[in-house]
Specification:
With about 300 residues, the chain is mostly helical. The chain has eleven helices and two strands; from the N terminus they run ααααββααααααα.
């Protein structure tokens, strides 16, 4: 059918693969944003910069300490998450009782500072990060060639995303987290240290950005602008899915990545704006987003 339209199947499936990879990053990053906003009511504009920090941490572990990809994969989320907890304790915790705009302005300023520091130190040219030898090569699926590393990125992102959704929506810990956002005094009465829970929640959301940075390092060049190029699309994903909706962030991120890939096949000129067109349509029909609830 696609050959009748003049589109070789290899081109179609290749763009769908790229769309699925981009969608995996959209889902992982928007998941972190959704966790932070849904649990803490903080619009974390520094998320893209922290994604960039995660990629640079992986690159520095390799070039400065000689630690390979798997060590970076294990350590980077903890390093970036700990940095996030430090930011929450020293800055964000002072703004919880104020309007959302203050948190947005603070995190936007933090994003500019982090980007400026890394740009001053490393310039704007990208730093290469090699694919780990254990994930080199690929698989011939008949209709297309699937690089092993890209398959790993897709699988890892899906496992982390749906594992996070299950932990928040289907476990006792997730119930405590959701209750703490509604009635922190009551949760504290049950012996739960709410301030520590809040800090760990922010740290976890930031760690997801760091993990996305590690996964992105071998695919995209590591550079200080990689977060700012992505964060606007990720915010659009969160708005379309519904602010604070975990499942909405995951499904919308993957779906929009695939839609972006299809658009590059059928109408390449619109591939850069299709996400924002979808956002405008969704907001006109359902202002709270596809999976959001009216507040």
């Amino acid at each position: 059918m696609f050959e009748m339209l003049g589109i070789p199947p290899q081109v179609l499936f290749g763009q769908l693969l790229l769309g699925l990879i981009n969608g995996s990053f959209y889902a992982l990053l928007s998941l972190g944003l959704a966790v932070i906003f849904g649990m803490l009511n903080v619009i974390n504009f520094a998320h893209g910069a922290l994604y960039m920090v995660g990629a640079f941490v992986a690159w520095l572990l390799l070039t400065q300490l000689g630690l390979g990809y798997w060590w970076a994969f294990a350590l980077t989320p903890f390093i970036v998450g700990a940095f996030g907890i430090l930011l929450e304790k020293t800055m964000l915790s002072r703004l919880y009782k104020l309007d959302h705009l203050y948190g947005l302005l603070l995190t936007f300023g933090l994003a500019l500072i982090l980007e400026g520091l890394f740009r001053h130190q490393y310039g704007v040219s990208g730093q290469p990060y090699p694919v780990p030898p254990s994930l080199s090569g690929g698989q011939n699926l008949g209709f297309m060639f699937l690089p092993n590393y890209r398959g790993w990125v897709i699988a890892c992102s899906l496992v982390v995303c749906f594992g996070t959704w299950f932990a928040i929506e289907r476990t006792r810990l997730g119930a405590y987290l959701r209750a703490a956002t509604e009635n922190p005094v009551l949760v504290q009465a049950f012996g739960i240290n709410v301030p520590v829970m809040v800090s760990l929640t922010y740290g976890f959301g930031v760690a997801l950005a760091g993990l996305a940075g590690v996964l992105a390092a071998p695919i995209y060049q590591v550079n200080p602008l990689m977060g700012s190029n992505l964060i606007i699309i990720v915010f659009a994903v969160v708005v379309i899915g519904g602010m604070g909706s975990i499942l909405g962030a995951i499904l919308t991120g993957i779906g929009l990545g695939l839609l972006e890939g299809l658009t590059k096949v059928f109408y390449p000129e619109a591939s850069n704006i299709v996400v924002f067109v979808v956002m405008a349509i969704v907001l006109m029909i359902k202002p709270a987003g596809l999976f959001g609830r009216e507040r």
